[in-house]
Amino acid sequence: QLNLLSLNLLSQNLLKILRKLRRILLMSLFIENLNLIFRIRNEINQQFFSQLMTDIKVQKPVIASIELSFFRNFIILTTMSEF
User: Fold this and answer.
1) Could you tell me how far CA 57 lies from the centroid of its own chain?
2) Digits of tens for pLDDT over the chain (83 positions)?
3) Strand, helix or coil for residue 73
């Protein structure tokens, strides 16, 4: 009967330890997932702003080139005798 009682106490203690370990593991996984989410979000933001800056840098010269080309063609057209 003493052995049964001590076995019961041992199993209860073991269950408590397992529950605590489970809780610790879940918390650690949760924190890891949060960190991963933040890292992914930061990477997406960096890529987005990097792409945006690249687009702006590319767009300005392209627009300037188009405007310049249009302006040159306009001058050519207006100075031609047929027009």
Assistant:
1) 23
2) 667 777 788 888 899 999 999 999 999 888 888 888 888 888 887 887 777 777 767 677 766 776 666 666 655 555 555 54
3) helix
Cα 70–72–74 angle (5° rounding)? 65
Is the Cβ–Cβ distance between 51 and 45 less than 8 Å?
Answer: no
Residue written as tokens 């001058």? 75
pTM for this prediction:
0.47
DSSP notation for 8-64: HHHHHHHHHHHHHHHHHHHHHHHHHHHHHHHHHHHHHHHHHHHHHHHHHHHHHHHHH
Pull the structure tokens for residue 54.
Answer: 């690249």
